[in-house]
Amino acid sequence: MNISMSSPDLTEADRQAVMNVINTPILSMGKYTADFEAAFCAYTGAKYAISVNSGTAGLHLCVRAAGLGAGDLVITTPFSFVASTNALLFENAIPIFVDVDPRTGNMNPELAAQAVKNIEPFLPRKGAEKHGNLKALLPIDVFGQPADMDAINKIAKEHHLKVIEDSCEALGATYQNRPAGRLGDFGIFAFYPNKQITTGEGGMIVTDDEQAAKLMRALRNQGRAPGDTWLQHTHLGYNYRIDEMSAALGASQMTRLETLLSKREQVAAWYEARLAEIPGVEAPFIASTTTRVSWFVYVIRFDPKISRDEMAKKLTARGIPVRPYFLPIHLQPYMVEKFGYRPGDFPITEDLGQRGLALPFSGVMTEDEVDYTCSVLREELTEG
Ligand SMILES: *Cc1c(COP(=O)(O)O)cnc(C)c1O
Question: Is the pTM value of this prediction over 0.90?
Fold first, then answer.
Protein backbone atom coordinates (compact mmCIF):
# COMPACT_ATOMS: atom_id res chain seq x y z
CA MET A 1 0.00 0.00 0.00
CA ASN A 2 1.45 3.36 -1.03
CA ILE A 3 0.15 5.94 1.44
CA SER A 4 0.96 9.65 1.05
CA MET A 5 1.40 12.15 3.87
CA SER A 6 -1.15 14.46 2.27
CA SER A 7 -2.76 14.88 -1.10
CA PRO A 8 -4.79 17.58 -2.82
CA ASP A 9 -8.37 16.66 -3.73
CA LEU A 10 -8.77 17.71 -7.37
CA THR A 11 -11.47 17.01 -9.95
CA GLU A 12 -11.72 17.27 -13.71
CA ALA A 13 -13.66 20.54 -13.19
CA ASP A 14 -10.71 21.95 -11.21
CA ARG A 15 -8.29 21.03 -14.01
CA GLN A 16 -10.62 22.50 -16.60
CA ALA A 17 -10.83 25.75 -14.63
CA VAL A 18 -7.06 26.13 -14.89
CA MET A 19 -7.07 25.22 -18.60
CA ASN A 20 -9.72 27.84 -19.29
CA VAL A 21 -7.37 30.52 -17.95
CA ILE A 22 -4.37 29.29 -19.90
CA ASN A 23 -6.43 29.59 -23.06
CA THR A 24 -6.82 33.35 -22.50
CA PRO A 25 -4.14 36.08 -22.49
CA ILE A 26 -5.04 37.28 -18.97
CA LEU A 27 -2.88 35.39 -16.52
CA SER A 28 -2.81 37.91 -13.68
CA MET A 29 -5.19 40.45 -12.10
CA GLY A 30 -8.29 39.36 -13.99
CA LYS A 31 -11.76 38.00 -13.48
CA TYR A 32 -10.73 34.82 -11.62
CA THR A 33 -8.95 36.73 -8.87
CA ALA A 34 -12.13 38.77 -8.36
CA ASP A 35 -14.28 35.58 -8.42
CA PHE A 36 -12.07 33.87 -5.86
CA GLU A 37 -12.27 36.87 -3.53
CA ALA A 38 -16.05 37.10 -3.96
CA ALA A 39 -16.32 33.43 -2.97
CA PHE A 40 -14.54 34.22 0.31
CA CYS A 41 -16.74 37.21 1.07
CA ALA A 42 -19.79 35.03 0.46
CA TYR A 43 -18.52 32.09 2.51
CA THR A 44 -17.15 33.98 5.52
CA GLY A 45 -19.44 37.01 5.47
CA ALA A 46 -16.44 39.35 5.39
CA LYS A 47 -16.85 42.73 3.71
CA TYR A 48 -13.44 42.48 2.05
CA ALA A 49 -11.31 39.57 0.82
CA ILE A 50 -7.84 40.13 -0.58
CA SER A 51 -6.14 37.22 -2.32
CA VAL A 52 -2.36 36.89 -2.20
CA ASN A 53 0.27 34.40 -3.35
CA SER A 54 0.81 32.70 0.03
CA GLY A 55 -0.53 32.59 3.55
CA THR A 56 2.76 34.10 4.70
CA ALA A 57 2.26 37.08 2.36
CA GLY A 58 -1.24 37.47 3.80
CA LEU A 59 0.09 37.51 7.35
CA HIS A 60 2.71 40.07 6.37
CA LEU A 61 0.12 42.39 4.82
CA CYS A 62 -2.01 42.17 7.97
CA VAL A 63 1.02 43.10 10.06
CA ARG A 64 1.53 46.15 7.83
CA ALA A 65 -2.17 47.06 7.86
CA ALA A 66 -2.31 46.77 11.65
CA GLY A 67 0.45 49.38 11.72
CA LEU A 68 2.96 47.12 13.48
CA GLY A 69 6.54 48.28 13.21
CA ALA A 70 9.97 48.24 14.80
CA GLY A 71 9.88 47.42 18.51
CA ASP A 72 6.10 46.94 18.72
CA LEU A 73 5.13 44.01 20.91
CA VAL A 74 2.69 41.34 19.74
CA ILE A 75 1.48 38.45 21.87
CA THR A 76 1.52 35.14 20.00
CA THR A 77 2.42 31.48 20.60
CA PRO A 78 5.45 29.34 19.72
CA PHE A 79 3.32 26.25 18.88
CA SER A 80 2.72 27.11 15.22
CA PHE A 81 4.13 27.02 11.74
CA VAL A 82 6.95 29.60 11.67
CA ALA A 83 5.17 31.99 9.31
CA SER A 84 2.93 33.39 12.07
CA THR A 85 5.98 34.66 13.96
CA ASN A 86 8.07 35.48 10.89
CA ALA A 87 5.47 37.94 9.60
CA LEU A 88 6.16 40.02 12.73
CA LEU A 89 9.92 39.78 12.35
CA PHE A 90 9.68 41.04 8.73
CA GLU A 91 8.64 44.41 10.22
CA ASN A 92 10.95 44.20 13.24
CA ALA A 93 7.99 43.84 15.57
CA ILE A 94 8.76 41.67 18.59
CA PRO A 95 6.83 38.44 19.17
CA ILE A 96 5.98 37.94 22.84
CA PHE A 97 5.35 34.25 23.33
CA VAL A 98 2.85 32.84 25.78
CA ASP A 99 2.50 29.10 26.25
CA VAL A 100 -0.49 27.16 24.94
CA ASP A 101 -3.47 25.19 26.19
CA PRO A 102 -2.13 21.65 26.68
CA ARG A 103 -5.25 20.09 25.14
CA THR A 104 -5.59 22.10 21.93
CA GLY A 105 -2.20 23.72 21.40
CA ASN A 106 -3.96 27.07 21.02
CA MET A 107 -3.11 30.32 22.82
CA ASN A 108 -3.88 30.15 26.53
CA PRO A 109 -5.97 33.31 27.10
CA GLU A 110 -5.10 33.42 30.81
CA LEU A 111 -1.42 33.69 30.00
CA ALA A 112 -2.17 36.31 27.36
CA ALA A 113 -4.12 38.30 29.98
CA GLN A 114 -1.18 38.04 32.39
CA ALA A 115 1.23 39.25 29.71
CA VAL A 116 -1.02 42.19 28.86
CA LYS A 117 -1.08 43.26 32.53
CA ASN A 118 2.66 42.92 33.04
CA ILE A 119 4.79 42.25 29.99
CA GLU A 120 8.20 42.25 31.72
CA PRO A 121 8.28 38.55 32.72
CA PHE A 122 7.30 37.62 29.16
CA LEU A 123 10.08 39.52 27.38
CA PRO A 124 12.80 37.43 25.74
CA ARG A 125 16.29 37.31 27.33
CA LYS A 126 17.63 39.54 24.57
CA GLY A 127 16.50 41.27 21.40
CA ALA A 128 13.81 43.38 23.13
CA GLU A 129 15.94 45.93 24.96
CA LYS A 130 14.42 48.80 23.02
CA HIS A 131 10.87 47.61 22.85
CA GLY A 132 7.85 49.80 22.27
CA ASN A 133 4.25 49.24 23.32
CA LEU A 134 2.05 46.21 23.14
CA LYS A 135 -0.06 46.61 19.98
CA ALA A 136 -1.66 43.33 18.97
CA LEU A 137 -2.52 39.70 19.60
CA LEU A 138 -1.79 37.03 17.01
CA PRO A 139 -3.50 33.73 17.90
CA ILE A 140 -3.31 30.68 15.64
CA ASP A 141 -6.19 28.26 14.91
CA VAL A 142 -3.92 25.26 15.36
CA PHE A 143 -4.63 22.09 13.31
CA GLY A 144 -8.00 23.47 12.19
CA GLN A 145 -9.47 24.28 15.57
CA PRO A 146 -10.19 27.94 16.44
CA ALA A 147 -8.35 29.52 19.35
CA ASP A 148 -10.49 30.66 22.31
CA MET A 149 -11.31 33.88 20.50
CA ASP A 150 -14.00 35.29 22.81
CA ALA A 151 -11.51 35.35 25.67
CA ILE A 152 -8.78 36.72 23.40
CA ASN A 153 -11.03 39.44 21.95
CA LYS A 154 -12.06 40.48 25.44
CA ILE A 155 -8.42 41.13 26.33
CA ALA A 156 -7.90 42.97 23.06
CA LYS A 157 -10.93 45.17 23.60
CA GLU A 158 -9.95 46.14 27.13
CA HIS A 159 -6.49 47.18 26.01
CA HIS A 160 -7.19 48.50 22.50
CA LEU A 161 -5.15 45.83 20.75
CA LYS A 162 -5.56 44.60 17.18
CA VAL A 163 -6.28 40.90 16.68
CA ILE A 164 -4.77 39.04 13.73
CA GLU A 165 -6.22 35.53 13.51
CA ASP A 166 -3.95 33.08 11.71
CA SER A 167 -6.59 30.76 10.24
CA CYS A 168 -4.21 29.27 7.69
CA GLU A 169 -5.05 25.79 9.05
CA ALA A 170 -8.75 26.38 9.71
CA LEU A 171 -10.79 27.25 6.60
CA GLY A 172 -14.32 26.04 7.34
CA ALA A 173 -13.93 25.65 11.11
CA THR A 174 -16.40 27.37 13.42
CA TYR A 175 -16.13 28.77 16.93
CA GLN A 176 -19.48 29.09 18.73
CA ASN A 177 -20.96 28.79 15.23
CA ARG A 178 -18.92 31.74 13.89
CA PRO A 179 -16.47 31.10 11.06
CA ALA A 180 -12.73 30.89 11.72
CA GLY A 181 -10.87 33.81 10.18
CA ARG A 182 -13.71 36.16 11.13
CA LEU A 183 -13.08 36.21 14.85
CA GLY A 184 -10.48 39.01 14.99
CA ASP A 185 -9.82 42.21 13.02
CA PHE A 186 -8.04 40.25 10.29
CA GLY A 187 -8.13 36.60 9.28
CA ILE A 188 -5.72 34.79 6.98
CA PHE A 189 -6.18 31.52 5.05
CA ALA A 190 -3.58 29.55 3.09
CA PHE A 191 -3.79 27.21 0.11
CA TYR A 192 -0.59 25.18 -0.04
CA PRO A 193 -1.39 21.67 -1.41
CA ASN A 194 -1.87 20.11 2.03
CA LYS A 195 -4.51 22.65 3.11
CA GLN A 196 -8.30 22.18 2.95
CA ILE A 197 -8.43 23.83 -0.49
CA THR A 198 -5.40 24.41 -2.67
CA THR A 199 -4.27 26.84 -5.33
CA GLY A 200 -0.74 25.39 -5.49
CA GLU A 201 0.54 28.45 -3.64
CA GLY A 202 -1.85 31.10 -2.38
CA GLY A 203 -3.55 32.85 0.49
CA MET A 204 -6.53 35.04 1.37
CA ILE A 205 -7.07 37.84 3.87
CA VAL A 206 -10.57 38.65 5.16
CA THR A 207 -11.51 41.79 7.06
CA ASP A 208 -14.31 44.31 7.57
CA ASP A 209 -11.85 47.21 7.81
CA GLU A 210 -12.20 49.27 4.63
CA GLN A 211 -9.07 51.38 5.10
CA ALA A 212 -6.95 48.35 5.85
CA ALA A 213 -8.38 46.47 2.87
CA LYS A 214 -7.49 49.37 0.57
CA LEU A 215 -3.97 49.53 1.92
CA MET A 216 -3.46 45.77 1.63
CA ARG A 217 -4.69 45.78 -1.99
CA ALA A 218 -2.15 48.49 -2.76
CA LEU A 219 0.67 46.75 -0.87
CA ARG A 220 0.15 43.41 -2.60
CA ASN A 221 0.37 45.21 -5.96
CA GLN A 222 3.79 46.89 -5.60
CA GLY A 223 2.34 49.72 -3.53
CA ARG A 224 0.08 51.07 -6.27
CA ALA A 225 -2.75 53.04 -4.66
CA PRO A 226 -6.09 53.48 -6.48
CA GLY A 227 -5.41 55.91 -9.34
CA ASP A 228 -1.68 55.12 -9.56
CA THR A 229 -0.46 54.13 -13.02
CA TRP A 230 1.64 50.99 -13.59
CA LEU A 231 4.83 52.89 -12.72
CA GLN A 232 3.50 54.99 -9.85
CA HIS A 233 3.92 53.56 -6.37
CA THR A 234 2.40 55.47 -3.48
CA HIS A 235 3.61 52.94 -0.89
CA LEU A 236 6.56 50.64 -0.37
CA GLY A 237 4.81 47.50 -1.61
CA TYR A 238 5.41 43.92 -2.67
CA ASN A 239 4.49 41.58 -5.43
CA TYR A 240 2.11 39.40 -3.44
CA ARG A 241 -0.45 39.00 -6.24
CA ILE A 242 -2.02 35.62 -6.89
CA ASP A 243 -2.03 34.55 -10.56
CA GLU A 244 -5.19 33.78 -12.51
CA MET A 245 -4.49 30.03 -12.83
CA SER A 246 -4.25 29.72 -9.06
CA ALA A 247 -7.28 31.92 -8.48
CA ALA A 248 -9.37 29.89 -10.95
CA LEU A 249 -8.35 26.68 -9.19
CA GLY A 250 -9.21 28.23 -5.84
CA ALA A 251 -12.61 29.46 -7.05
CA SER A 252 -13.36 26.00 -8.42
CA GLN A 253 -12.31 24.35 -5.15
CA MET A 254 -14.49 26.79 -3.19
CA THR A 255 -17.59 25.57 -5.03
CA ARG A 256 -16.86 22.12 -3.52
CA LEU A 257 -15.71 23.28 -0.08
CA GLU A 258 -18.46 21.49 1.83
CA THR A 259 -17.61 18.20 0.09
CA LEU A 260 -13.90 18.69 0.70
CA LEU A 261 -14.50 19.36 4.40
CA SER A 262 -16.87 16.46 4.92
CA LYS A 263 -14.51 14.00 3.23
CA ARG A 264 -11.81 15.12 5.65
CA GLU A 265 -14.26 14.75 8.54
CA GLN A 266 -14.96 11.19 7.46
CA VAL A 267 -11.25 10.32 7.43
CA ALA A 268 -10.81 11.90 10.88
CA ALA A 269 -13.77 9.86 12.18
CA TRP A 270 -12.21 6.62 10.82
CA TYR A 271 -9.03 7.46 12.68
CA GLU A 272 -10.80 8.40 15.89
CA ALA A 273 -12.75 5.14 16.07
CA ARG A 274 -9.64 3.02 15.59
CA LEU A 275 -7.37 5.04 17.86
CA ALA A 276 -9.80 4.63 20.75
CA GLU A 277 -8.76 0.95 20.83
CA ILE A 278 -5.01 1.51 20.70
CA PRO A 279 -3.29 1.99 24.05
CA GLY A 280 -0.57 4.62 24.38
CA VAL A 281 -1.95 7.22 21.95
CA GLU A 282 -4.53 9.96 22.14
CA ALA A 283 -6.72 11.26 19.35
CA PRO A 284 -7.01 15.07 19.03
CA PHE A 285 -8.96 16.87 21.76
CA ILE A 286 -11.89 19.00 20.62
CA ALA A 287 -12.68 22.07 22.76
CA SER A 288 -16.28 22.76 23.75
CA THR A 289 -16.10 26.13 21.95
CA THR A 290 -15.32 24.38 18.67
CA THR A 291 -18.60 23.90 16.84
CA ARG A 292 -16.80 22.52 13.79
CA VAL A 293 -13.23 21.33 13.36
CA SER A 294 -11.84 21.80 9.90
CA TRP A 295 -9.40 18.90 9.78
CA PHE A 296 -6.05 20.11 8.47
CA VAL A 297 -3.62 17.48 9.72
CA TYR A 298 -4.33 14.52 11.98
CA VAL A 299 -1.95 14.78 14.92
CA ILE A 300 -1.94 12.06 17.56
CA ARG A 301 -0.19 12.33 20.89
CA PHE A 302 1.87 9.55 22.46
CA ASP A 303 2.00 8.79 26.17
CA PRO A 304 5.06 10.46 27.72
CA LYS A 305 6.68 7.03 28.29
CA ILE A 306 6.70 6.26 24.56
CA SER A 307 9.40 7.72 22.30
CA ARG A 308 7.65 9.60 19.51
CA ASP A 309 10.85 9.69 17.47
CA GLU A 310 11.35 5.92 17.73
CA MET A 311 7.74 5.37 16.69
CA ALA A 312 8.15 7.79 13.78
CA LYS A 313 11.18 5.79 12.57
CA LYS A 314 9.34 2.49 12.82
CA LEU A 315 6.27 3.77 11.00
CA THR A 316 8.39 5.33 8.24
CA ALA A 317 10.31 2.07 7.84
CA ARG A 318 6.99 0.31 7.27
CA GLY A 319 5.88 2.72 4.57
CA ILE A 320 3.73 5.04 6.67
CA PRO A 321 4.80 8.66 6.18
CA VAL A 322 4.55 10.72 9.38
CA ARG A 323 5.71 14.14 10.58
CA PRO A 324 6.43 15.59 14.02
CA TYR A 325 4.20 18.64 14.69
CA PHE A 326 5.40 21.27 15.63
CA LEU A 327 9.07 21.85 16.24
CA PRO A 328 8.59 24.86 18.57
CA ILE A 329 9.27 28.24 16.97
CA HIS A 330 11.29 29.56 19.92
CA LEU A 331 13.82 26.76 19.48
CA GLN A 332 14.45 27.30 15.77
CA PRO A 333 18.12 28.32 15.38
CA TYR A 334 17.48 31.90 14.21
CA MET A 335 15.07 32.49 17.12
CA VAL A 336 17.60 31.18 19.65
CA GLU A 337 20.22 33.48 18.16
CA LYS A 338 17.99 36.55 18.03
CA PHE A 339 16.12 36.27 21.33
CA GLY A 340 18.22 33.88 23.43
CA TYR A 341 15.50 31.28 23.96
CA ARG A 342 16.36 27.99 25.67
CA PRO A 343 14.73 24.59 26.01
CA GLY A 344 12.33 24.78 28.94
CA ASP A 345 11.11 28.31 28.20
CA PHE A 346 7.69 27.12 26.99
CA PRO A 347 7.23 23.68 28.54
CA ILE A 348 3.75 22.92 27.21
CA THR A 349 4.66 23.85 23.65
CA GLU A 350 7.80 21.73 23.96
CA ASP A 351 5.93 18.78 25.44
CA LEU A 352 3.30 18.84 22.69
CA GLY A 353 6.09 19.20 20.14
CA GLN A 354 7.80 16.11 21.53
CA ARG A 355 4.73 13.88 21.73
CA GLY A 356 2.77 14.91 18.64
CA LEU A 357 2.91 13.01 15.36
CA ALA A 358 0.92 13.78 12.23
CA LEU A 359 -0.37 10.63 10.56
CA PRO A 360 -1.08 10.48 6.80
CA PHE A 361 -4.17 12.57 6.17
CA SER A 362 -6.20 13.95 3.29
CA GLY A 363 -9.73 13.99 1.95
CA VAL A 364 -8.83 11.34 -0.63
CA MET A 365 -7.49 8.86 1.92
CA THR A 366 -9.42 5.57 1.92
CA GLU A 367 -10.75 3.60 4.87
CA ASP A 368 -8.33 0.80 3.93
CA GLU A 369 -5.41 3.19 4.20
CA VAL A 370 -6.58 4.39 7.62
CA ASP A 371 -7.03 0.74 8.67
CA TYR A 372 -3.55 -0.18 7.54
CA THR A 373 -1.97 2.88 9.21
CA CYS A 374 -3.71 2.11 12.50
CA SER A 375 -2.91 -1.60 12.43
CA VAL A 376 0.79 -0.88 11.87
CA LEU A 377 0.67 1.69 14.67
CA ARG A 378 -0.98 -0.81 17.00
CA GLU A 379 1.58 -3.52 16.15
CA GLU A 380 4.52 -1.21 16.75
CA LEU A 381 3.06 0.05 20.03
CA THR A 382 2.20 -3.37 21.45
CA GLU A 383 5.36 -5.18 20.29
CA GLY A 384 7.97 -2.87 21.75
C1 LIG B 1 0.22 27.02 6.19
C2 LIG B 1 0.36 28.02 7.27
C3 LIG B 1 0.70 29.36 6.98
C4 LIG B 1 0.97 29.91 5.61
O5 LIG B 1 1.73 29.13 4.82
P6 LIG B 1 2.13 29.45 3.31
O7 LIG B 1 2.96 28.27 2.96
O8 LIG B 1 2.89 30.72 3.28
O9 LIG B 1 0.89 29.55 2.48
C10 LIG B 1 0.72 30.26 8.03
N11 LIG B 1 0.46 29.88 9.30
C12 LIG B 1 0.14 28.62 9.61
C13 LIG B 1 -0.16 28.28 11.03
C14 LIG B 1 0.11 27.64 8.61
O15 LIG B 1 -0.17 26.37 8.93
Answer: yes
